[in-house]
Amino acid sequence: MSRPERRLNLLTGDWVLVSPxxxxxxxxxxxxxxxxxxxxxxxxxxYLCAGVMRAGGVRNPEYEGVYVFDNDYPALLPGxxxxxxxxxxxxxxxxxxxxxxxxxxxxxxxxxAGMSPGEIEPVVETWTAQxxxxxxxxxxxxxxxxxxxxEMMGASNPHPHGQIWAQQHVPNEQVRExxxxxxxxxxxxETLLASYLRRELAAAERIICAxxxxxxxxxxxxxxxxxxxxxxxxxxxGMDELTSTERAGLADILSRLTRAYDRLFEVSFPYTMGFxxxxxxxxxxxxxxxxxxxxxxxxxxxxxxxxxxxxxxLAMPQRDLTPxxxxxxxxxxx
Length: 334
Hints:
The protein is α+β, with helices and mostly antiparallel strands. It is built from six helices and twelve strands. The chain has a single domain, classed as HIT-like (HIT family, subunit A, 2-Layer Sandwich), CATH 3.30.428. It has helices at about 115-135, 170-190, 190-205, 245-265, 310-315, 325-330, and strands spanning about 5-10, 15-20, 65-70, 95-105, 140-150, 160-165, 205-210, 215, 230, 270-275, 290-295, 320. The strands form two sheets. The protein has a nine-stranded antiparallel sheet, with helices on both faces. The protein has a three-stranded mixed sheet with strand order 1-2-12, with no helix packed on it. Strand 1 (about 5-10) and strand 2 form a beta hairpin.
């Protein structure tokens, strides 16, 4: 590929402009020294470390594994509230829900890339238990499990942790993805991501790593330079449908992918990662496939990042490095 083309994101319906001829353009934008964090196993000033008093006045237990608690500063609040607006130009309605924090380990110095598959597996088990619990609630329509890694992605604390936001309504991205998956399922009798994964496995050019149960790849329509999609080989609608073998396989893929990220520029790689699963409104949703998105911002080095500005904000996403080249670079590091 040597000339520009646009590629369709099958999950959202958005187009992405790929411009490989720009990959060698000179860079005079922002750059900074990549910080090398000091290894600190326990930080008494960290409100996520074991035994430390949090800002809300609650002291963390001396936990030894995965620890979950309700966020002290939640973006959502429980309880149904009446209200809303009939104004067609100023539309609003109440939103209820809850937010939780998941500390992956008491070791303050680790990231997911520094954890073994065996250490990540209890995190996957906790995600599954949390999804199962929240999905059973009548007041919750969607559960979003995610992690912001690194200051560049707005992480407010370096301790290895993620979040769960469970809410009354299905949020925008899941609605868009759900609509596209439903249309494909109705037309083809197979889930969209099962069809797509079969095509990617046959081509093999965008695969990063794989095991018997999960596959990590750079999607054909990737907008971020080293974006990744993690897919199950067996189409399931949520984590609660995974077998113990599949949960272990997911932990293995997460370990291999995040380690490859860190090796790419020899830095603790920042990213936003999150899982999309079926809505939790009690419906079957057979068209939905569980999957995880990784959106890392780094572009050329540990200090040069991709910014979604200008044309990206006003028109459509654009990338220079092709998804195929990005996948090859990551694949060589797994």
